[in-house]
Amino acid sequence: MSRYRILTIISIVILALDQATKLYVDANFRLHESIPVIHGWFNLTYVRNKGAAFGIFADSAVRIPFFITVSIVAMLGILWYIRRLSNDQKLAVFSLSLVFAGACGNLIDRIRLGEVIDFLDVYWQRHHWPAFNVADSAITVGVTLLLIDMWREDRKKSAEDSAKKPKENEP
C-alpha cells in the first residue's frame, strides 16, 4: 500500500472518530458534566480547552492564530517527511499519519470553535490527567510509535555498521 494511501485511510478513520465523538459530547453533555465509565479510573467529562496540552497559552491573545499556524506547519512538515520515506518504512508512515490526523482533528476544532473539545478523563483517586480527545490520543500513539521506530532503525543501523567493521584480529 502506498504511503499516501495509508495517510488517507488513517486520516479519514481518525478524523471521523474524532469529530463524531466531539459532536456527540457537545450535543449530549452539559459543559463540565461527567459520567463515570470505570469507577475510580475513567470518566467522560465535557471540557473545552482554549490552550494546548495542559492548557498552555489558554489566556494568550494570539493563541488562535498561533495554534492554527503551528498545526498547519506541522501537517505540511509531516507531508514533506512522508514523501521522503522509503516504501518499506511502514511504521513511520503509520505513525506520522496518526500525528497528521490528530493535528487535523484539533485544527478543525480551533477553526470552528476557537478551542478544542476534550472529554476523556483518566484519573486515580484525586489525581486527574488533563482531559483529552481522540485526536490527542492519535498524536500520542503516533509519536510513541515513531520513537519506537526510530529506536529500532538506529539499532538496525548500528548492527549493520558493526558487521561491516573489520575485526581487530583479522589481517
Architecture overview:
The protein is α+β, with helices and mostly antiparallel strands. The chain is 60% helix and 14% strand. It has four helices and four strands; from the N terminus they run αββααββα. Strands 1-2-3-4 form a four-stranded antiparallel beta sheet. α1 (3-28) runs parallel beside α3. The protein starts with a helix and ends in a 7-residue tail after the last helix. The model has no long low-confidence stretch (mean pLDDT 92).
Q: Any descriptors?
A:
elongated; single chain; 171 residues; 60% helix; 4 helices; alpha+beta
Average pLDDT metric: 92
Strand order of the largest sheet: 1-2-3-4
**Number of strand elements:** 4
Q: Which percent range describes the beta-strand content?
A: 5-15%
Query: What is the approximate shape?
Result: elongated
Taking the alpha carbons of the first and last residues, their distance comes to 46 Å
What level of helicity do the residues show?
55-70%
Poorly predicted spans: none
- Compute the gyration radius: what is it? 20 Å
Structural class: alpha+beta
SS field, number of helical segments:
4
Main pleated sheet: 4 strands, antiparallel
Order of helical and strand elements: HEEHHEEH
